[in-house]
Design a protein that fits this description.
Layout: E1 2-10, E2 16-25, H1 27-35, H2 41-48, E3 53-58, E4 63-66, H3 68-74, E5 92-95, E6 100-101, H4 107-114, E7 118-126, E8 132-143, E9 149-158, H5 160-189, E10 193-198, E11 203-207, H6 209-215, H7 225-228, H8 231-234, H9 237-247, E12 251-258, E13 268-278, E14 284-293, H10 295-324, E15 328-332, E16 338-341, H11 343-349, H12 353-356, H13 368-384, E17 388-396, E18 399-411, E19 417-426, H14 428-478, H15 483-514, E20 523-526, H16 527-544, E21 548-552, E22 559-562, H17 564-580, E23 587-595, E24 598-605, H18 639-649, E25 653-657, E26 665-672, E27 697-701, H19 705-717, E28 721-725, H20 728-738, E29 742-746, H21 754-763, E30 771-776, H22 781-790, E31 794-797, H23 802-829
Helix pairs in contact: 14-15, 15-18, 16-17, 17-18, 20-21
This protein binds adenosine-5'-diphosphate (ADP).
Adenosine-5'-diphosphate (ADP) binds at residues 577-578, 581, 605, 607-610, 618, 623-625, 635-641, 665.
Length: 830
């Protein structure tokens, strides 16, 4: 049995162009129809016209009927009663959650097995073309006339579209939720403060964290703004809010100070906008408040300004310091280019910073070897992160200098070298000083050595004269009756003593000279007096050696502005030297002549001579030409140094000449002379002093018994009345008892020294008229001043020369007498 359907094919004008006939074999279908009980016919014709898919199965699950929608749904038309398609004509089945189902586990099978109808179960059908359809399955059982279950009908409602819509809706809702959440998060996390106000009362519906930070943690949600932020109305901000709501206009406020707490001392600085929110009908339903709290930003700005100011100040400070220091300060970048140079360096280059900036040493004109040296050192600092130090000669504006420099790594935050800072110091002067110091140290060592040699020499020279003195004493003891021997011995002892005293005097002069304490007492002196004085001193030595002496002086009187004693010392030294350094029986001459304003005086001998290399050095302190032992003459090497100093102090000069060893020597002194002098008798001539010898009462005080006794003996011989004391206490007691006219007071005594004794004696009513003469080994200016301060009338240095003492005592006695006379006359007048 066939069914025929004819379709008409039309052209674009709607005219019939062909017919298509479709034949379908419905034999089986018809057989099944016949098989169905007649009572079901009406149902089948109903089912055929149903808009939904429906099919039936018998109790075994064999398909007994399906309508066209069912075939469309399945995408196939299975054979009826075919065991291959039991329970369902679908190609494949899946549960609603996507798991594959067998036909035996379909809802139809479940209903047939359970005898229960099943409604609205979801199942997914896969068609042969792999498309899937979701259906709701309603299974209804049907029964035969006896009421027995005869099969079941399943209605499948295609819900694919609905399902898609549902899923889309869910997806959209989820998306909506997600978007909402995101919005809320954005709202919450916004760096701006945000609040949504609803209605004319501005009820705060939502506010973000920033908003809470701004207004403080308060219970504001769901409450009108006026109620929860009562501080705002007074500041006029809510009027604007009302207006924004009423007019539906947005209002922006910027850089405004708002106090968010009544008691707040500092306002918050804010920018904000009132933005109207509209409902579906376009009417304003609320206000979005959003803005920024600028307080912290402002604080930061202020802090930044302060920090910038401070760093500016420091920069100026450092710049000033760096500009003012004489050292060169600079910074290299990693590319060896200067990124900083202080003023001293710019001055040295003779460039401005604009000219020097970013240049390398080579580009700045350093010599290639110099630039390369610094390049290597910069690389070394970068590689090792350690400083490099060096010295380099540098030819700059100030000539050739020596620079001491150090390159130091500047370490960045990442621990790597980011620049190289350097300082350079001009050490030319230091170097010179170091060299000077080294040479001075050498000189000092030499001087020290000389000093040691000198001390040894001094000991030797002081001991030498003691030998004849001791021998003389012994001779006098043995040959006490031989007057001629006594005389010879006495003269010899006196010579040796004078020599020793001269040595010591010279030593004291040297000490004065070294401390610049050598003072001259200049006056108008005659050259002849000077020479006479010098000859008096030198003659014994000259005569002792058997030399002949020739003195030639200018015929005219020559006057000098000089210290007679010191100038005489100069010539006596030169004459003594000639006597010493000339073999016995030699010739010595002293010749003086004047040319214009200059006096030239030479001392010439035919002695051992001076090697040329020593002609200058012999004028240095402690300098002696090394002589053979037999030529050693006894001296300390200070005589010529004194001569040189004294002549210089007289504005003159002195030099030595010699043709060499054994060729004799000439010492020449040049001095300015006084011109057009009115001839006057000099008062300085020590040989004119009147000496008086009057019997006097003298107390000799000395803790050295021998010195004390010998002095007492001498003075007794000279007819004086003498008492002695050996310490300070005894001295006062004896003085009180003896009431002397004169006291010779030793200064250095134990317990009570001479100064103190003098002071105490001067306090006594009988003590002020006594002539007290300090007698001491100390003869420096300070010592003399000290004895004068203690009340002494005079100061004599040991060993006291008796003639000198007598002269002094005569003077002092004379002075005392005239004072007493004046006193008496003054008293008589009153
Ligand atoms: P002193 O004579 O005590 O050694 P001086 O300072 O007077 O010290 O002399 C220094 C040195 O100069 C002497 O040691 C001697 O070597 C040398 N000298 C001085 N005068 C003469 C001279 N007339 N002839 C040769 N040498 C002399």
């Amino acid at each position: 049995m066939l069914t025929v359907s004819v379709d008409i094919v039309r052209d674009e004008n709607g005219n019939c162009t062909a017919t298509v006939s479709t034949f379908q074999n419905i034999t089986e279908h018809k057989n099944a129809e016949n098989f169905l009980p007649q009572s079901e016919n009406w149902f089948r014709s109903l089912a055929d016209h149903l808009p939904v898919a429906a099919y039936t199965c018998d109790n075994d699950g064999l398909l007994t009927y399906f309508n066209k929608p069912a075939a469309d749904l399945w995408g196939r038309s299975p054979a009826l009663q075919d065991p291959a398609d039991r329970f369902c004509g679908a190609y494949k089945l899946f549960s609603s959650d996507g798991f594959a189902m067998t036909h035996e586990s379909s809802w139809m099978a479940a209903a047939l097995r359970s005898g229960q109808q099943l409604n609205g179960h979801e199942v997914i059908i896969e068609r042969p073309d792999s498309s899937r359809i979701t259906v709701l399955c309603y299974v209804t059982l049907f029964y035969d006339q006896t009421g027995r279950q005869a099969g079941a009908m399943s209605v499948l409602i295609d819900i694919t579209v609905r399902k898609c819509l549902e899923e889309e809706t869910i997806r959209l809702l989820n998306h909506l939720d997600y978007e909402r959440e995101r919005l809320i998060e954005v709202f919450e996390r916004s760096p701006s403060f945000l609040a949504i106000l609803r209605g004319p009362q501005h009820v705060i519906e939502r506010a973000n964290t920033r908003y809470f930070q701004l207004v403080g943690r308060r219970d504001i949600i769901g409450k009108p703004i006026r109620q929860v932020l009562p501080e705002l109305p007074d500041q006029g901000y809510l009027d604007t809010l009302d207006e924004a709501y009423r007019l539906g206009k947005s209002f922006a406020v910027s850089n405004k100070e708002v106090f968010f707490h009544k008691e707040a001392t500092e306002p918050s600085l804010v920018d904000f906008i009132y933005e109207p929110l509209r409902g579906g009908d376009g009417n304003v339903v609320g206000i979005l408040v959003h803005g920024n709290d600028l307080t912290e930003q402002k604080r930061m700005q202020q802090r930044l300004i302060a920090v910038t100011d401070e760093s500016d100040r420091l920069r100026r400070l450092y710049e000033t310091i760096l500009s003012s220091i004489p050292d060169l300060v600079y910074v290299f970048g990693l590319d060896h280019r200067f990124t900083y140079a202080n003023q001293a360096l710019l001055d040295m280059w003779g460039l401005t910073w604009q000219e020097a900036k970013g240049k390398t040493c080579l580009e700045l004109g350093y010599e290639p070897w110099h630039a390369q040296k610094h390049d290597r050192e910069i690389e070394q600092v970068i590689a090792t992160k350690k400083s490099v130090r060096g010295e380099v000669p540098f030819l700059g504006k100030n000539g050739l200098r020596i620079d001491d420099y150090i390159f130091v790594p500047v370490i960045g935050a990442d621990g790597e070298v980011e620049a190289i800072a350097g300082t350079t110091r001009d050490i030319t002067d230091r170097k010179r000083m170091e060299q000077e110091l080294a040479s001075r140290a050498e000189d000092l060592t030499l001087a020290d050595q000389k000093k040691d040699e000198f001390i040894a020499l001094l000991a030797h020279e002081l001991r030498n004269p003691l030998v004849p003195v001791r021998n003389g004493l012994r001779i006098m003891e043995i040959a006490d009756s031989d007057a001629a021997t006594h005389q010879r011995v006495r003269e010899m002892m006196e010579r040796q003593l004078s020599h020793m005293v001269r040595l010591i005097d010279d030593l004291l002069d040297v000490s004065r000279m070294n401390r610049s304490k050598l003072h001259l007492q200049k006056s108008q002196v005659r050259l002849t007096d000077v020479i006479q004085s010098a000859l008096d001193t030198a003659r014994p030595v000259i005569e002792e050696a058997g030399h002949t002496l020739e003195v030639t002086l200018p015929s005219e009187p020559v006057y000098l502005d000089a210290d007679l004693t010191r100038l005489a010392q100069v010539f006596s030294n030169l004459l003594s030297n000639s006597a010493k350094y000339t073999r016995p029986g030699g010739c010595i001459s002293l010749t003086a002549n004047v040319v214009g304003e200059t006096l030239t005086a030479s001392v010439k001998d035919n002695g051992i001579g001076i090697p040329p290399e020593a002609l200058t050095s012999i004028f240095e302190m402690f300098s002696q030409v090394v002589h053979s032992p037999e030529q050693a003459t006894g001296g300390l090497g200070i005589g010529l140094a004194l001569v040189k100093t004294l002549i210089k102090m007289h504005d003159g000069e002195v030099w030595a000449e010699s043709e060499g060893p054994e060729q004799g020597a000439i010492f020449t002194v040049k001095l300015p002379r006084l011109m057009n002098v009115a001839v006057q008798e000099s008062n300085n001539n020590p040989y004119r002093v009147q000496q008086s010898r009057v019997k006097q009462r003298i107390l000799v005080v000395d803790d050295n018994h021998d010195a004390c006794e010998s002095m007492a003996m001498l003075l007794r011989i000279l007819d004086n009345e003498i008492r002695v004391a050996h310490d300070g206490i005894e001295a006062i007691a004896v003085a009180d008892d003896f009431r002397p006219e004169i006291i010779l007071m030793d200064v250095g005594m134990p317990f009570l020294n001479g100064y103190e004794v003098t002071r105490r004696i001067r306090e006594q009513p009988w003590g002020d008229k006594i002539i007290i003469v300090a007698v001491t080994g100390w003869g420096q200016e300070g010592d003399i001043a000290q004895s004068s301060a203690a009340g002494c009338n005079a100061h004599l240095v040991k060993p006291v020369n008796l003639q000198e003492l007598e002269k002094l005592l005569a003077e002092l006695t004379e002075k005392n007498k005239s004072l007493a006379k004046t006193d008496k006359q003054a008293k008589q007048k009153t």
